[in-house]
Each structure stands twice: as structure tokens, then as C-alpha cells.
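Record pair follows.
FIRST:
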Amino acid sequence: MTTTQAYLQTWIEARTRFSNLLKDLKEIDLTKKLVNTKNSAGFLIRHIADVELLFAKNVFGVSEIKVQAKTVIAQHDTGEWINLIELLEYQQYAFENLKAIIEKQNDDDWQESITTKEFGTKTKAEALGRIISHTAYHAGQLSLILKYAIL
């Protein structure tokens, strides 16, 4: 197994913490929030996809990626993330694009340093750890919302 294959498997497995939550999701769930919190389930789904696309664009330099990172720009839930089909399609678009760019990496590419305003200078391998932890962090929030929030 190559380094790239190992990183790809690791990322995909870690992302199941998020993707498994989407299987039984209903549109009514998208507006759910925990008491005294700001972000809805719909916002978190959109945010995870926005950041994955920004990651593909900024870390891996894929300039043709289409991303309107509305959740990052707004920095709060605007209440507009209520269309389940759109959100599921968008997160799938993010998954497929990030997967494709990870697959294109040579084993030596993972030691290449990149610099972003969000987290400074890191190797691509270290940066991959950031996207894994980001998705897992928000997947945990989403899980709590889906389990405990009421409408």
C-alpha cells in the first residue's frame, strides 16, 4: 500500500463519522439546534462541505473547484440550510472532489509544505490531519443535535 492509499483510506474512514449520519436524515432535522447554541444541523452539513472544498482548493491548489463558502463567509447560521437534497448533493460534490485530489498525490507530495491563512505552514500530511479533525469535530456536533435537539 502506498502512502497516498493509506491517507485516502484514513480520510474516508474518518469521514464516515459524518457520512453515516446523513443516511437517515430528514428535511425536518435540518433546522434542529441544541439549546443555547447557534448552529443548526443544516448549517453544519453545509459547513463541512464548504471547508472540504476550500481545503481542496487552498491546500492542493485545485483552482477549478467551485465553492461558495457561505458558512465561512457568514460565520454564523443564517437559517438558509433547509434543502436536504441540495445539502446532500453539495456534500457529495465536496467528497468526490477532495477524494479525487488526494488520489492524485504522489507519496513524496505529502511532505510538501503549504501555507494557508487558516493554519499557517504545514506539510500536506499535517494538513490532511486538520481536515480529518475538522470534519470529525463537526460530525460530533451534528450527532448530538440529531440525537438530543427538539424542534
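SECOND:
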Amino acid sequence: MKVVNLDLTKMPGSILVKPNIRLVGKYIGKGSSVLKTASVFNFKASQSISRIDIRAVLYDQSSFDFDGILRIEKGAIETDTYLSVKCLLIGKESKAKVVPSLEILESSVKAGHGATIGYLNPVELFYLESRGLSRDKAQSLLINAFLKF
């Protein structure tokens, strides 16, 4: 499956998703940065397999607002797709809002979506610190692992 990177800061309102593709996007929010984006991912080809993975790490007072619609057009039979959006809040005042949706106009498809918004796991931080890593190094390690696809 071919991997294509998305620039989440320049997302078009509509994206035609080609067959057998994985779209990945990362956003790092710092300071008081705000990213609000909405996109429709259109599927028109039959027997198309695709995955869409979005990750956001939010520091300070940054915010992330993402609306993503998977639209499977009539005729796109046997489409298999999934939208995953995961946000990690690092700053005490950082915010995230994620609204994944499905619009399915064909009956023979497999489609789904999921979204999570959370914090670093304190147990994982404690474990890494108990092994001699500083708090900053432990946080950095966990954040880098979160951003890996």
C-alpha cells in the first residue's frame, strides 16, 4: 500500500482517495496555535482499500479541530477504508475536537472510523523514569512513539 503524507495545515475541502493508499498526517501544536480543518475523503473506485491515519500532539494552549467525512460514492463497491484520528494533549490548556463521520452511498462496503483524545500515561512515564530517564526524555520517547505509524 502506497503511503502519502498529508499537510494538515493545507487540507483541501475534498480529497479523492485513490485505491490502495494510506494517507497519513501529523500536527504538532505549540504556543497558542490553532488548526481547524474539515475534509471529505471521497471514494469512487470499486475494490479500493485505504487507511487514513491522523495524529496530533498539542502543547501549551494549542488546539486542534478536525472534521473528517468518509464518503463512499455509489458504484464504489467492495471499498474497505478506515479513518483513525488520535490526539495527545501535553499542555494543561491544550484542546482537541475530532468529529469523524461516514457517508455511505453503496451497500457492499467495509468502512469505519475511530478517534481518541488523551494524555501521556503516568504509569508509562513512571516506568521510564524508574529506569533512569529524565521526565523530559521519557515524555519525548513516548511522544515520538505516538507519532510513529
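COMMENT: Strands lie at 2-6, 14-16, 21-29, 34-43, 49-58, 63-72, 80-89, 95-104, 110-118.
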